[in-house]
Each structure stands twice: as C-alpha cells, then as structure tokens.
Amino acid sequence: RKEVEQDPGPFNVPEGATVAFNCTYSNSASQSFFWYRQDCRKEPKLLMSVYSSGNEDGRFTAQLNRASQYISLLIRDSKLSDSATYLCVVNTNAGKSTFGDGTTLTVKP
Amino acid sequence: GAGVSQSPRYKVAKRGQDVALRCDPISGHVSLFWYQQALGQGPEFLTYFQNEAQLDKSGLPSDRFFAERPEGSVSTLKIQRTQQEDSAVYLCASSLGWGDSSNQPQHFGDGTRLSIL
C-alpha cells in the first residue's frame, strides 16, 4: 500500500461543474499537506497548502482531517484551464515530501 | 534566475553509460530535493540536501545513483552504468529550508527527461 493514495480518475466534467478529489495518507507523523497541479509534460506547481481549519483560495477549497488521515480538494465552477493532474503531497518533519500518483481532471466545454 | 533551472532538458544515453544531471536551485534556498517521476505516477523522493549536507538519501534506488551539492547551491545527480529502468523524468526542487521546513512548499524545475536505449 502506498503512503499517499489518490483516486487516479480520470474525472471528466463539464465546464461549471463542481468536482472533489480525495487523498489518504498512512504516516501519522505527517506534518504538512499540499495540493500541486501538474500539466502534461510540465513540472508540478504548488496549488495550495492545506491547513487544519480548512482553507479557500478563490474557486478552490482544501480540507484536512487528521483523525481520518484524509485530505480533500474541491473545485467549484470548473474551467477548461483546470484540466490537469492534481497531486496530493504530504510532508514529514524536515520537509521530506511524499507524493500521490495524482488524479487526472478533464474539463469539457 | 527566478526559478529552479535543470539541465539538460532531454538526455538520451546508451545502456551502460554514465550520465550527470544538473540542478540550479532558487537563490537563497537552503533545501534541495531530487525526485524520479515515471509516466503516470507521482514524483518519487530520491534524496535531500540542506546546504551541502545530504540529510536523506533513502530514496536512491541503487548504489549506481549518487548526488552531491558541494558548495550548497548547484547539485548534480549522477547515474552510473545506466539501465533501461532508469528512464524517467528527474525533477529537482528547492525550498527556503529554514525553521520548520516541513511547512515550506517546494518549487520545481522543468525536469530532465532521461531515455536509456
């Protein structure tokens, strides 16, 4: 079993839809959490950090449940430009990062 | 430069050859990471430096892989006697690294796409 698991998808949604991605992690010592976005043949780019109280950045909302070791990302009013692979990232102490294999999203007109 | 720079962007080598991949992190970033990403998978951790010190090399798949950062800035990942299974994208990332580095996001370079024939 991988340390960080994500539903690989693909998720195919129409423009304007709301879509949610889930991620679970197995290391209870994990300290910080992020969502990255990766476009095809490009490098991962930070989308947002995930805080215990939950946080929002425009159309994107991230939630963390430490008890269940579960992270989520919600995208509202999805745009064509949101099409990408979304990577869940978990950091232990000293910054070592473990990545999930990503969830692929395709937004269609 | 403004971001993490990696070279070469593409590298083709014959099985058995040695290769060297370079990473130039964001100026002032203390922490530097190397990852290996296979097609359809997330990046897999290889090794981590804080300044010139290699603090974690637990992800290096074999003793053919070696990384260094002698002056605490530019880093080189070397793969000796390459095998076909070494074909992947090699990503370098850096972060500020001071204080509680676990909270600091990493900034990635474009990667080196390595193909072993």
Description:
The complex is a heterodimer of chains A (109) and B (117). Chain A contains no helices and eleven strands. Chain A has 109 residues and is an all-beta fold. In chain A, strands 2, 4, 5, 9, 10 and 11 form a six-stranded mixed sheet that branches. In chain A, strands 1-3-8-7-6 form a five-stranded antiparallel sheet, with no helix packed on it. In chain A, strand 7 and strand 8 form a beta hairpin. In chain B, the strands form two sheets. In chain B, strands 2, 4, 5, 6, 9, 10 and 11 form a seven-stranded mixed sheet that branches. Chain B has a four-stranded antiparallel sheet with strand order 1-3-8-7, with no helix packed on it.
Mean pLDDT value of chain B: 92
Biggest interface pair, counts: A-B, 23 and 28 residues
Number of helices of chain B: 0
- Give the integer mean of the pLDDT values of chain A: 93
Task: Write down the Rg of chain B.
Answer: 13 Å
Note the overall shape of chain A: globular
Unreliable spans of chain B are none
Terminal residue distance of chain B = 33 Å
Order of helices and strands of chain B: EEEEEEEEEEE
In total, how many beta strands of chain B? 11
**Percent of residues of chain A in helical segments?**
under 10%
Oligomerization state? heterodimer
Provide a count of the helices of chain A: 0
Helices and strands of chain B: which structural class? mainly beta
SSE topology:
The complex is a heterodimer of chains A (109) and B (117).
Chain A: E1 4-6, E2 11-14, E3 19-25, E4 32-38, E5 45-50, E6 55-57, E7 60-65, E8 70-75, E9 84-91, E10 97-99, E11 103-108
Parallel strand pairs in A: 2-11
Antiparallel strand pairs in A: 1-3, 3-8, 4-5, 4-9, 6-7, 7-8, 9-10, 9-11
Chain B: E1 5-7, E2 10-13, E3 19-24, E4 31-37, E5 44-50, E6 53-56, E7 65-68, E8 75-79, E9 88-95, E10 107-108, E11 112-116
Parallel strand pairs in B: 2-11
Antiparallel strand pairs in B: 1-3, 3-8, 4-5, 4-9, 5-6, 7-8, 9-10, 9-11
